[in-house]
Amino acid sequence: MSLSPFDDPNGEYVVLANAAGARCLWPAWADVPAGWSIDFGPAARPACLARIEARPDEPASKSH
């Protein structure tokens, strides 16, 4: 049974953000979908999840 790329504990991830400020976990190797940009990472899964959960009401970074 293979892991989903979103569940790989050894994978490298980024946090994506959209114009509305929503964030999501995304595999670092995958293309960034239209309408999204990298807000954090690449980093380990726990660090990316911490970024998403730390301040869900904070607007996503505009620096990327």
Q: How many helical elements? A: 1
Distance between the termini: 36 Å
Helix content: 10-25%
Shape designation? globular
| Spatial arrangement of strands, main beta sheet | 2-1-3
Compute the average pLDDT.
86
Low-confidence segments, given as residue ranges, are none
- Taking all Cα atoms into account, the compactness measure Rg is 11 Å
**How much β-strand is present in the residues?**
25-35%
Could you characterize the architecture of this molecule?
The protein has a domain of 34 residues. Strands 2-1-3 form a three-stranded antiparallel sheet, with helices on one face. The protein has 64 residues and is of the alpha+beta class.
Topology (elements, then pairings):
Blueprint: E1 12-18, E2 23-27, E3 36-44, H1 45-54
Antiparallel strand pairs: 1-2, 1-3
Short account of what is shown:
This protein is an alpha+beta fold and 64 residues long. The protein has one helix and three strands.
